[in-house]
């Protein structure tokens, strides 16, 4: 590949006329190559058949293969290792005027309090189901969308039985979109060779099972930005491999919610998978949503917020945060007070600007957490010395005021803090709809 100046498996696959997943399968130990594809591969690399594979006519103890041929084979396999960054898509389009040309369906997994599902609905996708294990989050979904089929239960059990066999999943036909944000977990690795066996015991596994069962046209998978380099990138690269083996062309990017009508700096990785048969007939390719011209700050979204519950500070903490100006943090405190408040963290220096942090009216919020008063990730109200209330939390996450949350105050904060910002989800949904409209 180096001699032929072929840098990536994507480029090699294009020269041969096959998908990246087909090429990976072709070079795997368990694959029996089709003659035409083998000839194409030999032609693209200008190598002989003997150089491509180990001769099967050799005695097992003394294989007929030179050191040079062995080196070439190893080099070929190593160069075809998945490089997650080669799947990063930096193409964008304006989606402001996108409308669905027909009714498109979506099944949501790991639905939580409904941020992603609601955003996709606002884009124009029709929900045919929402899977969620948490009882209070499920109650939130049922209360706000009684017409949705909310499937409360363990996704592992649901996927094992087959989602099509669940009594609450009444959809039949071809699903347009599967969506969801499965937790980021490390896998066990065997050189990225064992496919689904590498991901057993993780919550990515049932997601991939449902994907293979329903074979939707497109899937949307979102996760924390840290997934890109999680476990030195092997986690994302394994996901990409599984998705490709399932028959999907993959792209991803990191989207900042502030770029999409959300008054919050919250970055998420969004992975898009498009079924291979659509790729072959597409007139135009998928592109991520273009950045919005509207970049709201807190004063834009926290006007006339409905009254709601909220936690408070202890008297000691309140007295400390009173000293912090809007947009400030612990560095604005007197040295001795800062040292006492931060403890051992004080010696770590400038990397912890979230401590004793007060937000500013003229800036977006930093990423909301599942608790509004955590010491390491403080989000104090800009002009009042208190955490944000539940409804303020919801506004910052771009939930509409009429979307209510079930459970106690802690459960409500948790549901909102874990959610995908609704407006971000809407923009992603519009990009998906734009792509589907061509078929």
UniProtKB/TrEMBL annotation:
The active site is at residue 184. It comes from Enterococcus larvae. The keyword Membrane does not apply. It is an enzyme of class 2 (transferase). The keyword S-adenosyl-L-methionine applies. Belongs to the class I-like SAM-binding methyltransferase superfamily. C5-methyltransferase family. GO terms for biological process: methylation. Residues 366-375 have a biased composition (Polar residues). Residues 362-384 are annotated as: Disordered. SUPFAM superfamilies: lambda repressor-like DNA-binding domains (SSF47413), S-adenosyl-L-methionine-dependent methyltransferases (SSF53335). Residues 8-52 form the HTH cro/C1-type domain. This is Cytosine-specific methyltransferase. Transmembrane segments: none annotated. Its EC number is 2.1.1.37. GO terms for molecular function: DNA (cytosine-5-)-methyltransferase activity. It catalyses: a 2'-deoxycytidine in DNA + S-adenosyl-L-methionine = a 5-methyl-2'-deoxycytidine in DNA + S-adenosyl-L-homocysteine + H(+). Keywords: Methyltransferase, Restriction system, S-adenosyl-L-methionine, Transferase. Coiled coil: none annotated.
């Amino acid at each position: 590949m180096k001699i032929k100046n072929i840098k990536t498996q994507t480029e090699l696959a294009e020269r041969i006329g096959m998908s990246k997943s087909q090429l990976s399968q072709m070079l795997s130990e368990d694959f029996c190559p089709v003659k035409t594809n083998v000839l194409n591969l030999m032609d693209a690399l200008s190598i002989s058949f003997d150089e491509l594979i180990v001769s099967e006519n050799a005695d097992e103890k003394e294989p007929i293969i030179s050191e040079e041929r062995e080196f070439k084979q190893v080099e070929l396999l190593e160069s075809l290792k998945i490089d997650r960054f080669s799947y990063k898509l930096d193409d964008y389009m304006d989606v402001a005027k996108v409308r669905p040309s027909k009714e498109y369906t979506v099944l949501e997994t790991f639905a939580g309090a409904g941020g992603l599902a609601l955003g996709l609905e606002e884009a124009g996708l029709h929900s045919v189901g929402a899977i969620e294990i948490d009882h209070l989050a499920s109650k939130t979904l049922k209360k706000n969308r009684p017409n949705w089929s909310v499937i409360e239960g363990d996704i592992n059990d649901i996927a094992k039985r087959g989602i099509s066999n669940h009594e609450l999943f009444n959809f039949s036909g071809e699903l347009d979109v599967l969506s969801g944000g499965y937790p980021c977990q490390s896998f066990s690795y065997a050189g990225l060779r064992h496919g689904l066996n590498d991901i057993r015991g993780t919550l990515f596994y049932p997601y991939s099972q449902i994907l293979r069962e329903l074979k939707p046209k497109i899937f949307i998978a979102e996760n924390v930005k840290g997934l890109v380099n999680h476990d030195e990138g092997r986690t994302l690269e394994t996901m990409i491999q599984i998705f490709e083996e399932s028959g999907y062309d993959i792209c991803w990017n990191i989207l900042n919610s502030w770029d999409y009508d959300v008054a919050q700096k919250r970055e998420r990785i969004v992975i898009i998978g498009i079924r291979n048969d659509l790729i072959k007939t597409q007139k135009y390719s998928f592109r991520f949503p273009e950045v919005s011209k509207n970049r709201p700050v807190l004063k834009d979204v926290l006007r006339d917020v409905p009254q709601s519950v909220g936690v408070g500070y202890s008297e000691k903490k309140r007295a400390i945060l009173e000293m912090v100006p809007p947009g400030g943090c612990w560095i604005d405190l007197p040295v001795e007070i800062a040292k006492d408040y931060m403890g051992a963290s004080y010696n770590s220096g400038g990397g912890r600007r979230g401590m004793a942090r007060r937000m500013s009216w003229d800036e977006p919020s930093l990423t909301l957490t599942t608790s509004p008063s955590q010491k390491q990730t403080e989000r104090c109200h800009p002009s009042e010395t208190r955490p944000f209330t539940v409804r303020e939390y919801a506004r910052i996450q771009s939930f509409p005021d009429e979307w209510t949350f079930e459970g106690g105050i802690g459960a409500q904060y948790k549901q909102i803090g874990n959610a995908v910002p609704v407006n971000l989800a809407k923009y992603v949904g519009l990009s998906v709809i734009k792509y589907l409209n061509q078929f």
